[in-house]
Amino acid sequence: MATKLLNSILRTRPSNLLFKRWESSEKRVVTYDPFVTVPKKDKKTFTEVVKMFEGRDTRRRGHVEFIYAALARMKEFEVQKDLEVYKALVDVFPKGKFIPSNIFQAEFLHYPKQQQCAVDLLEQMEDNGVIPDSEMEQMLLNVFGRRGIPLRKCWRMLYWMPKFKNLSPWHLPTELPKDTLELAILAVQRITSVDADMEVRVWQTEEIEASLDKTWVVSAQSPSQRTLLAGQPPDEPLVVKGPYNVYLKDQVVTYFLLLGKIRTPPKDESDPDDVSNLAKPVGIPGVFGTTKLPAVQCTTHEQDDGTILSVCATGTSSRDSLLSWIRLLERNGNAVLEKIPVIFTLIAPPNEIAIHETLPADNEKGKKENVQANTT
Description:
The chain has helices at 2-28, 43-56, 63-77, 83-90, 103-107, 112-127, 134-144, 149-165, 180-191, 223-230, 319-331, 350-357, 364-375; strands spanning 199-204, 216-221, 238-248, 251-260, 283-284, 288-289, 302-303, 306-314, 342-344. With 376 residues, the chain is of the alpha+beta class. The longest helix is centred in the N-terminal third of the chain and has 27 residues, at 2-28.
């Protein structure tokens, strides 16, 4: 009886003890992020934290978790587009340990956790438009070897990213300006680059005495657009459409269009089968006769949905700023706008509706009428 009791204790007791020890140890595990306690968020303090981790342990234990924590905090320190910081993170990997020694290790992803971490680092570089150089290529070669997946990823980035960098015909600076006015000027220049004679001007709504929204207006109009605007029929209203979005890297700028009526094509009512009055042949250029241009030549501003008469971007994109834009266009070489009605299709912003919703309950009817007027 005693031996049976002793055997049951030996069978059940160690597993329970091991389970309790494992459970208690899991509760004590706490993920430590060294970048949270840094008081100043800049490149210098970021690199200092990386150097402190490198000097703490020669075996670099926990380097994968540290690199992932650093990648997540790079935007806070504003170093997500700095190549030197990415090199410092690659230098955290131990050297020579992850290099495969035979073909089986190379093909079956030797040290997959570390290789995946390096690939994620390179993908974050690619998302932020950071192109690796030959020094980073050599660093990845020393860490993962020639057959490593991160080095193959780096080679593809070195081939494709310089091609895509210079592919767009609209050049932008490496660092976009933080001023919204300068961003709006770059956006309007990109939109209106189809016409070489386009003129981009910057106005202030303060020039209009009746304006309520004091802001800036970036307007673009070419001489051909002024001619098209002067030929618009006075009984047909113009339409201000928008807002539309244009992307400058990771920045978004909204713009508006002034659309007019499309010119009607000329009608030829002559009978092509009537041979009683034959016209002289047009001729062949350079051989005999003269060539005739069409009666109406369409420009690049005449599209299927309307004639684009002007483009603008304002500081607030509000109705009052657009109304000031139309008045400024009238003052600057477009006197015909005084006679032509203009329709605004801009949807009322939600803050105007919220203001009317805070009215007292006894004025419920007037509140609904104001909300409907703002949403139309």
